[in-house]
Hints:
This protein is mainly β. 0% of the residues lie in helices and 49% in strands. The chain has no helices and 22 strands. The protein has strands spanning 9-15, 18-20, 29-31, 35-36, 43-58, 67-73, 77-88, 96-102, 105-106, 110-112, 127-131, 135-141, 149-159, 165-175, 180-188, 190-191, 208-213, 224-232, 241-244, 247-248, 265-273, 279-284.
Amino acid sequence: MFSKSRLGRFFLCIAGTLIIFLYISPCLATYNFEGAPEQDKMKEITSGTVKGGLYVDEGEGLKKTPYVKEFNVPGDSVKWARIYVGVWGGNEDKTGTLDLIVNGKDFESVKLEGKGDKGDDEDQNPAIYGAGYGVYWVAYDVSTNISTGPVKVEARTGGDIDGRVYGIVLAAVYEDKNGKDTKYWIEEGNLNLHGKGWSEDMGSMHDEAYSDFSGDIDADKYKTANLAVAYLCGSPGLEDSIYFNDEQLSDGDNKNDIANSKSYFDLKFVTIQIAFQRLQFFLVSRKNCI
């Protein structure tokens, strides 16, 4: 159905008049080699309509900690917000810690336990998704910790893990009395997409994933959507592709190598014309750094 190409772990949103964004599962810590919380798709946890919009911004790419990123959230008030931190562990056996500071507030240090993490703490914030050979995507609920205006985020890692941070992403649904009605869906996941034999003696292939957004869209009211996809481990020449309702999307003139950053982190925004009611998003992969 789709041509095969490559994708690393990813983060998804559509923002604009219509917004689709990444899934947040109930808070948990879990590790699965092929992907967490599920192997082949992300899941939706919240959706709705807001008079305002969705703000999404990110850090600069893989580097050592302390990793600092400053944001500036528009609007009158924050309705919902998550901070995402991508961490490279080095391998799935190493363990370490992640500490986060938001506008001077310290969050409790969290353990990154690799394949030793069995998901036995379902009440914790943040949610920790471990996949592959030690790649973490950590989601902090900061809905009550930030407001509109400047937001400063600092991440620090410790322990035996490599500890470099791929990037920090802030996503915030905000209200604005002068804004327009905006529909949004929130999804997230850490999927380990790879080709056969890409690493060591791996004989399996896991090269496609998708999100299926439930609900109907009034195509007369909502004319466009902005899709944002975050990739970890992307690099030039590995042929990442994105499909939305069977249409291959393009980042300008680039559509066959869309996650082409040399810093192993990409956040891509694509505008989509709404000429349909059901929304389905596919990501296809042949290789990745797992």
